[in-house]
């Protein structure tokens, strides 16, 4: 029975560990691009744009419709006719024309021969496709940025917990030493109480950090479109610092945000042209072929013997529509389109300045955080050395408990500062890569 229980526990342990995924930044981003709702919806918009283009093209193709009718005339209209037409001058004849039943069926065709708005729509079709493709690229970049920043934040919180766990273990060892000294009358109860309070504070902070880790992990899973219950590990190699190449400011004209606005400007120009098309005449070809049946009975199944006769007729023609005056409505819409274009051009200028600013700020943050990391790494080394020496001195009675606790606090603070400096560097690194328009390199490497 014991062996079965042990085997069951081992199986459960293996199953639990198998459910924990090793998640690199590249894996996290790829998962998000495939599963996050924003990315999926953006791809659907690209697909939908093709149908919008097909809708525009349909206006240039023949429009064919079939029609049918069945009419019953309970009372036929009476017409008054001059009797002279029938050899009876000076008299008036009342006559009813038509039949009680009339049925018809036919096919009609309409083909635009000249319509400036249709031609403009066809020219704008390719720009419409490119607009949605660029918008999809921008959405993917936004997903990548959110996932990368959240990914690094999770790692930092986990590192903080690791440091606190280590500090808690070390403080527990000091507590045991102080307790042994107190039991032997070599330490004050105040010293023991202080170390117990210290352990309690560390434990409280650990609980707070655990809560922050859970919140950060849930946020990352949300940005990825990953089930909240999924467990994952982050390799330490993902947090290594590699010097970022600082070049001259990139060309903002290649940034996705800028390209999207320029494409939007192009579409607004097409929209303005389409409105102006209302000034132009339109010409279309129309044609129809119809079959009509008339008689005193329902024509659908009746024959000439029943007094029902069928005949066909057709027509081909041209329809010309020449706009003359519409109350200046078209002129007003053209001017509104001009305002929309000018407003967007201001957005383009502002965006260009903003993109330049993003690069300058990211570059400054990279440079500053590089220096900070170097300094904090040295501070961490010195703090650990001081803690080691202070701990030895305390064991030899050459340092007070206050000195030891201060050294522990300083060491923990130095390690936390170093970890935060790395996080700031990583976030600045993402911002710099974004400012270069190279966020996709995070999944291509």
Automatic annotation (TrEMBL):
- Using the record, list the residue span of the signal peptide; answer none if the entry has no such feature: 1-20
Question: What high-level taxonomic lineage is stated for the organism?
Answer: Bacteria, Pseudomonadati, Bacteroidota, Flavobacteriia, Flavobacteriales
Protein's name in the database:
Outer membrane protein TolC
Q: Which SUPFAM superfamilies match?
A: Outer membrane efflux proteins (OEP)
Q: Which PANTHER family match?
A: OUTER MEMBRANE PROTEIN TOLC
Any one Pfam family match given in the protein's UniProt record, by short name: OEP
Transmembrane regions: none
Q: Coiled-coil intervals in this record?
A: 334-393
Record's keyword terms, sorted: Cell outer membrane, Coiled coil, Membrane, Signal, Transmembrane, Transmembrane beta strand, Transport
- Protein family per UniProt: Belongs to the outer membrane factor (OMF) (TC 1.B.17) family.
Where is the protein situated, by its record's location annotation? Answer: Cell outer membrane
Listed Gene3D superfamilies: Outer membrane efflux proteins (OEP)
Q: Name one GO molecular function term.
A: efflux transmembrane transporter activity
- Cellular component, GO, one term: efflux pump complex
């Amino acid at each position: 029975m014991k062996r079965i229980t042990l085997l069951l526990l081992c199986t459960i342990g293996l199953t639990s560990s198998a459910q924990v995924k090793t998640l690199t930044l590249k894996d996290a981003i790829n998962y998000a691009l495939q599963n996050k709702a924003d990315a999926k919806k953006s791809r659907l918009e690209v697909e939908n744009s093709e149908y919008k283009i097909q809708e525009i093209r349909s206006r240039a193709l023949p429009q064919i419709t079939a029609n049918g009718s069945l009419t019953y005339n309970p009372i036929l209209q009476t017409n008054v006719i001059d009797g002279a037409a029938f050899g009876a001058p000076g008299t008036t004849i009342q006559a009813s024309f038509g039949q009680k039943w009339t049925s018809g069926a036919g096919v009609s065709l309409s083909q635009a021969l000249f319509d400036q708005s249709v031609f403009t729509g066809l020219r704008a079709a390719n720009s419409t496709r490119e607009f949605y493709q660029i918008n999809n690229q921008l959405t993917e970049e936004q997903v990548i940025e959110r996932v990368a920043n959240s990914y690094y934040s999770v790692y930092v919180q986990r590192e903080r917990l690791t440091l606190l766990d280590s500090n808690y273990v070390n403080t527990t060892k000091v507590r045991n030493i102080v307790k042994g000294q107190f039991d032997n009358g070599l330490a004050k109860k105040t010293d023991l109480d202080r170390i117990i309070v210290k352990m309690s504070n560390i434990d409280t902070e650990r609980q707070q950090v655990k809560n922050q880790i859970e919140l950060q992990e849930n946020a990352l899973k949300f940005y990825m479109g990953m089930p909240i219950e999924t467990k994952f590990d982050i390799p330490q190699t993902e947090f290594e610092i590699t010097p970022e190449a600082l070049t001259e400011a990139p060309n903002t004209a290649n940034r996705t945000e800028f390209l999207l606005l320029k494409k939007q400007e192009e579409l607004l120009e097409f929209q303005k042209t389409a409105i102006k098309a209302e000034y132009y005449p339109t010409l279309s070809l129309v044609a129809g072929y119809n079959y009509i049946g008339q008689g005193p009975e329902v024509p659908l199944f009746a024959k000439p013997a029943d007094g029902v006769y069928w005949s066909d007729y057709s027509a081909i023609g041209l329809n010309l529509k020449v706009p003359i005056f519409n109350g200046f409505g078209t002129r007003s819409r053209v001017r509104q389109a001009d305002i929309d274009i000018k407003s967007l051009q201001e957005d383009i200028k502002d965006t260009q300045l903003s993109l330049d600013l993003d690069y300058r700020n990211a570059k400054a943050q990279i440079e500053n955080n590089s220096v900070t990391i170097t300094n904090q790494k040295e501070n961490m080394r010195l703090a650990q050395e001081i803690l080691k020496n202070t701990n030895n001195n305390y064991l030899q009675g050459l340092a007070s408990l206050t000195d030891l606790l201060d050294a522990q606090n300083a060491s923990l603070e130095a390690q936390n500062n170093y970890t935060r400096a790395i996080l700031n560097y990583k976030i600045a690194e993402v911002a710099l890569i974004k400012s270069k328009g190279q966020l996709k390199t995070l999944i291509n490497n």
